[in-house]
């Protein structure tokens, strides 16, 4: 499936951005202009089941295959968040970016979160008060965008997660130079995963105090953690 995309900037280097579940390209509205100012042509995708992209079968393989079908080969930089990090990891060998960054990747998720993932669909109808209370560090624009992306999201993407996580989705090795940014205040990934990723060839950094959507919780901390990678 060819995905809907949005671009920022006209630089001669390409950066691609892959959002997490319930979001779409709009989630990068503060990150993408920073990259564009650094000389990148930034391409944000809407994953299958999100935003203006099509619907269909949902699996790690289809999400990854859609990225390969849609994005140019050998971008300078690829950044994936959460579910988008899973999709990017599945596509990275074929896309062959010069550098890959995985933000709080949904690879090896705590068991209790997997068991509760089928209930993510209730967030389809979340209101402003609920989003703000769950994400007190977000600004008003991010709350507005979350409401808009939820309206365009297919909750069937959440219903397949328990089957997906019947096995670990952690990559065996870093295929390209790869950075993992962990959110210090997130409870998504299982304890000890950071140390395991280092053994597998990933560089691992933590944005202390940031929740799962670390670039929305602490943009400056997120950008600072990317020092040397963007």
TrEMBL record:
<dbReference type="InterPro" id="IPR000073">
    <property type="entry name" value="AB_hydrolase_1"/>
</dbReference>
<dbReference type="InterPro" id="IPR029058">
    <property type="entry name" value="AB_hydrolase_fold"/>
</dbReference>
<keyword id="KW-0378">Hydrolase</keyword>
<feature type="domain" description="AB hydrolase-1">
    <location>
        <begin position="16"/>
        <end position="221"/>
    </location>
</feature>
<dbReference type="Pfam" id="PF12697">
    <property type="entry name" value="Abhydrolase_6"/>
</dbReference>
<protein>
    <submittedName>
        <fullName>Alpha/beta hydrolase</fullName>
    </submittedName>
</protein>
<dbReference type="GO" id="GO:0016787">
    <property type="term" value="F:hydrolase activity"/>
</dbReference>
